Amino acid sequence: MKVFQDKNELIRLVGRLKENNNSIGFVPTMGALHDGHLSLIKEGFHKNTHVVVSIFVNPTQFDNAEDLKKYPRTLERDVTLLKTVSKDKIIVYAPTVDDIYGDDVASEHFKFSGLEHEMEGRFRKGHFDGVGTIVKRLFEIIKPDFAYFGEKDFQQLQIVKKLVENYDIPVKVIGCKIHRENDGLAMSSRNERLKPEYRKAAPFIYKTLKAAKTKFGSKSATKVTKWVEDEFAKHNLLELEYFIIADEKTLKPIKRKSKTKSYRAFIAAYADDIRLIDNIALK
Ligand code: AMP
């Protein structure tokens, strides 16, 4: 398996592959890979001959220095896991901060039609400027035909689609279903940092989302939101940061239910000092 740290070598290889009519799928990750990431890569092979997987803990999208420091970095294990999917058709790009940013580790500023101000944008200041900066740079380096993003980070997926539209980037963005553990917890690189009692408690997040979905069939969004907030208030290990029912397109909190719109419920919660997010489609 080829693992590149240097973008110029990667650019040369991808250029050669494209000249020979290969199609390039791209899965950006921050590493500490799990089956959720692998499901995106496998999806990539449906439409592409090769899949580039980037592994890069992007400093500009972290608003919390401690979270950045503690983010798991497991490149060797990641490469071993990737080899179980394909030994020769996956190309890994694991750059240094310098290869991406040079000596200016800073975000560009983006407008994403207001998507950036909701939920994660509200609670993680500057997060989507960091995401926009890294995804745009990686698209410029890799020039993929298709790029795969998980619905686990649904707001990020919508923002990347907007980025591609705003900058006319010739890539097709594909959203992929959330991959879960057997007990319902959405897979996440952060899960491995959960202490056992918190890991045991964490499936409560998805259980509550599912119950909220059922309730939303007959109750108002305000009532459902209140119910979720009360459930978390009773829980002694998980702390709710937000529960929001929002329009899937605008990500604005729902005002009044409309049959013509699609809604999604979003949760961010803390398990100890680890922040977990999840969401569910309400249709
Ligand atoms: P990350 O490494 O957390 O930045 O995630 C890299 C990509 O994998 C993003 O597009 C995520 O949305 C996606 N992803 C992470 N966890 C999951 C999951 N449990 N199911 C599906 N996609 C996921």
Taken from the alpha-carbon principal axes, the silhouette is: globular
CATH superfamily of the largest domain: HUPs
CATH top level assignment of the largest domain = Alpha Beta
Number of helices: 11
Uncertain runs are none
Largest sheet: 6 strands, parallel
Which ligands does the model contain, each kind named once?
Answer: adenosine monophosphate
Secondary structure category: alpha/beta
The N- and C-terminal alpha carbons lie at a distance of 41 Å
Number of strands: 9
Helix content: 25-40%
The CATH architecture of the largest domain can be named as 3-Layer(aba) Sandwich
- Taken as a percent bin, the fraction of beta residues is 15-25%
- Count of structural domains: 2
Radius of gyration: 19 Å
* Order of H and E elements: EHEHEHHEHHHEHEHHHEEE
